[in-house]
Amino acid sequence: MDLVAGLIILGVVFLILLLLFMPMRFGIRYEKTAALEKIHVYVSVFGILIRIPIHNKEERGTKNTDKDKGKLQELTFASFKEHVDAFGEVFEVSKNELKNMLSFARKHLSCKEVDFNIRFGLDDAAKTGIATGAVWTSGTFLLKLIDTLIGIKKIKMNVYPDFNEKKFEIYLKTILIIQPIHFIMIVNQIRDTIKYIKTKIN
């Protein structure tokens, strides 16, 4: 009985070590509309795709109470551009720290593909047409910063202007290949660097 238990424990330890050091395919999917905000992580283990919900906010029903207001912030082009500009400013202030942190990530992480789609519409067709170039510029700038940090082998970006309806929706999907042990190390480095950057900016 002790021998069987020992073999089971040894097998479990071997499986954990195998999973930690075996390159795995990760996917991150982010979706943001006026009615929902979802983040999912996809992990492929031995050819089996596992979907892990990380964040999920969704409006339910058509009537919202004052308590529900503010839980789901509406995404607009102005707020999107503000976040992109803020990210760019943080990048410029902490460029060296970020590059030092992600030099390890670039060696052990392969970002195979980023699929980034934006659907937007303003008050009228003329304004939407004029803003299309600005949306392209902000989206391209964001992807360029990400590419500078970790490197992206294939980038697909599309902007779909809606001339009939006011909206701003984002769909982002990435495919990463990395060993879980390196992923854990990178997450720890990112956490420490974020703390340092926050202190530096403040």
Describe the structure concisely for a colleague.
The protein is an alpha+beta fold. It has helices at about 1-20, 75-95, 95-110, 125-150, 180-200, and strands at about 25-30, 35-45, 50-60, 110-120, 155-160, 165-180.
| Strands, total number | 6
Order of helices and strands: HEEEHHEHEEH
Strand arrangement across the biggest beta sheet? 3-2-1-6-4-5
Low-confidence stretches: 61-72
The averaged pLDDT comes out at 77
Q: From the alpha carbons, calculate the radius of gyration and give it in angstroms.
A: 21 Å
Strand content: 25-35%
Gap between N and C termini, in Å?
60 Å
Broad shape: globular
Structural class of the secondary structure composition? alpha+beta
Largest sheet: 6 strands, mixed
Determine the number of helices (DSSP H or I, runs of at least 4 residues).
5
Describe it.
The termini are far apart. The longest helix is centred in the C-terminal third of the chain and has 26 residues, at 125-150. 8% of the residues are buried. Residues 61-72 have low confidence and may be disordered. Helix 2 (77-93) packs parallel to helix 4 (125-150) and helix 3 packs antiparallel against helix 5 (180-201). This protein is of the alpha+beta class and 202 residues long. A six-stranded mixed sheet has the order 3-2-1-6-4-5. It is globular and about 75 Å long. A hairpin with a 3-residue loop joins strand 1 and strand 2 (36-45). It has helices at 2-21, 77-93, 95-108, 125-150, 180-201; strands at residues 24-32, 36-45, 48-58, 110-121, 155-161, 167-178. The chain has five helices and six strands; from the N terminus they run H-E-E-E-H-H-E-H-E-E-H.
